[in-house]
Specification:
This protein is of the alpha/beta class. Helix content is 37%, strand content 26%. The chain is built from 7 helices and 10 strands. Helix 5 links the parallel strand 9 and strand 10. Helix 1 packs parallel to helix 6. It starts with a strand and ends with a helix.
């Protein structure tokens, strides 16, 4: 996916980094509409789920969505998520999350989207993001319709 954002730059987006708990899922279960939207992406950009697996639903979500999944160790989760993003290349990634442990990846990614869903969102994630939405389906719709991203982010 190529994003040309006036006043901001041009981005070749190759990855979509997705937090699980509070973002893709609630209490370990996928939120309705997530699987359908990720299926419509067709792998461009390539979705990757990263999670501390707080509620134990990562394996089920991975199977249901058929996407790459990374479960990080307990402790220093924010730093681990940032390191993973850096390995992918933050300049070519859109990150979506809601928690304090998503703050660094939201801030450093080409586009950071904070989801304020049923679990809420940490204020650090809120302020680190480029865009704030009220649900994961809204966030995924921005990726499915990239001109919406451009309209929101242009300067």
């Amino acid at each position: 996916m190529r994003l040309v954002i006036p006043g901001r730059g041009t981005y070749a987006i190759g990855h979509l980094v997705l937090d699980m708990n509070g973002t893709l899922g609630l209490d370990g279960e996928l939120i309705e509409g997530v699987a359908e939207r990720l299926g419509r992406l067709g792998g461009d950009p390539r979705p990757v789920m990263i999670t501390a697996d707080t509620h134990g639903g990562a394996a089920r979500a991975k199977d249901a969505l058929g996407l790459e999944s990374v479960v990080i160790a307990k402790g220093e989760e924010a730093e681990q998520k940032l390191q993973f993003l850096r390995e992918l290349g933050p300049e070519s990634a859109i990150a979506i999350g809601n928690g304090a442990n998503d703050t660094f990846m939201l801030k450093e990614s080409a586009v950071g989207i904070c989801v304020v869903g049923p679990e809420g969102a940490s204020t650090s994630a809120l302020f680190a993001a480029d865009i704030v939405v009220t649900g994961i389906c809204d966030a995924l719709d921005l990726v499915l319709h990239p001109q919406r991203l451009v309209a929101t982010l242009r300067r």
